[in-house]
Amino acid sequence: MSREIWPQNGLHSQGQMLKINNNFSETRFAGTRSGVVRIFGAKGVDVTFEHPTPTELTSTIFIINKGLLVTVGDGQSLYLWDLRPVKPVLLHTLRFTERVSHIYSPVDSEWLYVGTEKGNIHIVQLLNFLLSSYTIHWNKAIELSCRSRPGKICQIEENPTDSNKLLIGFESGYLVSWNISEKIAETRYRCHAELTCIFWHHEGKQFMTGHRDGLIAIWNVKSTEPTAKFNPHQDEKESEADRVRLVLLCR
C-alpha cells in the first residue's frame, strides 16, 4: 500500500484551487481561495457550501469517525463543520492571534492540535471548540537555552502505539518527542535540512522524515541521529515541487 505525504498539511496548490486528499475513504475535498468547499467522490456524495465570509482556505482536516471537518481561513480563523446533515452546518469558529501552519487530530481523539508559524502548539477541545490552557511553547519543546525560533510547525503525529507521545516537526529540521501528561520533551532530534513531512512506522519504534532538498531520513525513537539517509532525487533534474513530494511505501 502506498501513501502520499505532502507538505503543508496535505495540501498542494493548483491554480486557484486547493485539492485535499482524504486518505481514509473515497471522499475528496476541494476548497477555493474564496472559501467555497466541495465534498465529492464517494457514491452519492456531492455537496458544496461556503464560509460565512470570503476567506482563503489554507488548511483543512477531516475528523475521522465524528463526521466533522475543520477548515482554516486566512491562516488564523478555524471553522468547525458538522457534515452529517444534508447540508453541512457551521458549529463553531475560533480565531488565533498567531498564524496557523498545521492542524492535527488523532483518530478518535477529543482534541485538535494547532501548530503555528511561531513554533507553538495550541490545543482545542473538539466538543465545544474551546481553547485549552495547555500550550506547548517552542522554547520548551527544544532546548531552553536556544534563543532563536525553530521555524513553523510542519507536522504533528501521535505515536501509533502510545497516544501519550507526540512527534513534533519544525520547519528548521528540529523534531521533538513530547510527553503530553508529563509536559516535557523526552527526546530531541535534529536534521540539518528543512523539514516537510513525517511518517511513523506502525510499530511506533521508527519514523521517517522528508526534507525540502529531497533527503529522506530514517530514525529510531531512541537515537538522536538518523539510522539511515538517502536522497533518491539528487541525481535527477526535477522541479522543486517534484523533489518536495515524497511517496512512502508501507509494507
Characterise the protein shown here.
This protein is mostly beta strands. It folds into two domains: 1-135, Methylamine Dehydrogenase, Chain H, CATH 2.130.10.10; 137-251, Methylamine Dehydrogenase, Chain H, CATH 2.130.10. The protein is 5% helix and 52% strand. The protein has three helices and 23 strands. The chain has helices at residues 7-10, 138-141, 240-244, and strands at 2-5, 11-14, 17-21, 28-32, 36-40, 46-50, 57-63, 68-73, 77-82, 89-95, 100-104, 111-116, 121-125, 130-136, 153-159, 162-170, 174-179, 184-190, 195-200, 206-211, 216-220, 228-230, 246-249. A five-stranded antiparallel sheet has the order 2-3-4-5-6. The protein has a four-stranded antiparallel sheet with strand order 7-8-9-10.
Summary keywords:
globular, mainly beta, four-stranded antiparallel beta sheet, 251 residues, Methylamine Dehydrogenase, Chain H, 3 helices, five-stranded antiparallel beta sheet, disordered C terminus
- Domain module count: 2
Alpha plus pi helix count: 3
pLDDT below 50 for ≥5 consecutive residues: which ranges?
A: 1-24, 237-251
Strands ordered across the widest β-sheet: 2-3-4-5-6
Q: Please state the oligomeric state of the protein chains shown.
A: single chain
Major pleated sheet: 5 strands, antiparallel
Shape: globular
Keywords: Exocytosis, WD repeat
Family: Belongs to the WD repeat L(2)GL family.
Pfam families: WD40
Organism: Oikopleura dioica (Tunicate)
